[in-house]
Amino acid sequence: MEGCDRAVGGTDGAYPVPIGTRFIHQGDGDLGARLGRLAARGLTTHPSVLLVGADVADLTPERIADWLRIWGDASALLVPASDGGFVALGLRALPAGLFEGVPWGTSEAGRAMAANLSRAGLATAVGPLSTDVDTLADLLDCRLGRVGQLARDLQIGRRESDAGPSPRRAD
Fold first, then answer.
1. What are phi and psi of 84, to 5 degrees?
2. Sequence-separated (6 or more) residues with CB below 8 Å from residue 58
3. In this structure, what DSSP letter does residue 165 have?
4. One pLDDT digit (tens) per residue for the chain, 171 residues
5. Residue burial 127-149, b: 16+ Cβ < 10 Å; e: rest
6. CATH for 7-126, among 3.40.50.300, 3.90.550.10, 3.20.20.150, 3.30.428.10?
7. How is the chain split into domains, by residue range?
8. Containing H/E element for 115?
9. Are 50 and 77 spatial neighbours (Cβ–Cβ below 8 Å)?
């Protein structure tokens, strides 16, 4: 994406980042505090920032380009996750308190962020539903499609059968 400056935020620099990408220390605190610092830092030198979760299953350059097209001239972009959270947040400004009151890691995080964006008066474009990877089941589902779902179901069935046969009632 021409004209974009790439940076990766994290809690330490122990992980490699792609060539041409800067590492930015997120600092301490909950996810909201860390995202807020990254957004504030990016907006000091750029007209907008796009914060993208590191666990987005279907992240490609084409997907990001789609998100940017959808964002257009809106003040913000919110890309919801299938589990109720969100996988990306685009901002042109950082209103005070935007990241407060969001129940991070829950199925309500996306709804809470949408409410915060609305309360802040930001016209928000909404991207297509996406998937993030929080569990092994998520990984199997997104990487292997129906085969992954079947493998997960079989694994769950095997765990249940490991408990031994069900007691049978004599008639």
1. 100, -10
2. 130, 131, 142
3. P
4. 455 555 555 545 555 555 555 556 667 788 899 999 989 988 998 899 999 887 787 778 888 889 999 999 999 999 999 889 999 999 999 999 999 999 998 999 999 999 999 999 999 999 999 888 777 776 666 655 544 455 555 555 544 444 444 444 444
5. beebbbbeeebbbbbbeeeeebe
6. 3.90.550.10
7. 7-126, 133-163
8. helix 109-119
9. yes
Contact 88, 79 (CB under 8 A): yes
In angstroms, the first-to-last Cα distance of the chain is 71
Write a three-state SS string for 30-51.
CHHHHHHHHHHHHHHHCCCEEE
Report the Cα 69 to chain-centroid distance in Å: 19
With a threshold of 0.85, does the pTM exceed it?
no
